[in-house]
């Protein structure tokens, strides 16, 4: 794919993809440092999950930029991102296995949030707890985000 054959919107979307790819590389480097021998993956489980999820989301966001583009640019980008997304997805699955095998069932799920009250960190107000526990049918959403399927 030659860059000069892209229309201006496709060029902007490609620039966004390159920026997101840089962010993904940074997230994956941070995740890798969390897996070093001096760091226990089970102690940094939540951070690792967040970094890997962000990396996955970046790939979906990249594709979203080409949602209405003409031609096969989106498909070419999608094919290029497939291996990255597949590897990150596998990493998330392995992280889940680490969680089940290495974490104590008595350990706090989010120790960095302090004491828990009713399943929420103490600093979450009763009003916010009520909102978080509300049925999705009673909550008005301003935005819904979804990622296209990675099926080939």
What would your notes on this structure say?
- The protein is mainly α.
- The chain has a domain at 3-104.
- Helix content is 55%, strand content 3%.
- The model has no long low-confidence stretch (mean pLDDT 76).
- It has helices at residues 8-33, 45-64, 73-102, 126-133; strands at residues 116-117, 120-121.
- The protein is built from 4 helices and 2 strands.
- Helix 1 (8-33) packs antiparallel against helix 2 (45-64) and helix 2 (45-64) packs antiparallel against helix 3 (73-102).
- It comes from Nelumbo nucifera (Sacred lotus).
Brief overview, please?
This protein is an all-alpha fold. Helices cover 55% and strands 3% of the residues.
Strand fraction band?
A: under 5%
The Cα radius of gyration reads 19 Å
Q: Report the end-to-end length measured between terminal Cα atoms.
A: 19 Å
- Number of H- or I-type helical stretches: 4
Strand order of the largest sheet: 1-2
Q: Give the assembly state of these chains.
A: single chain
Which series of helices and strands comes N to C?
A: HHHEEH
The overall strand count is 2
Question: How many strands, which pairing sense, and closed or not: the largest β-sheet?
Answer: 2 strands, antiparallel
GO molecular function: enzyme inhibitor activity
Pfam families: PMEI
Domain Pectinesterase inhibitor: 1-94
InterPro entries: Invertase/methylesterase_inhib, Pectinesterase_inhib_dom
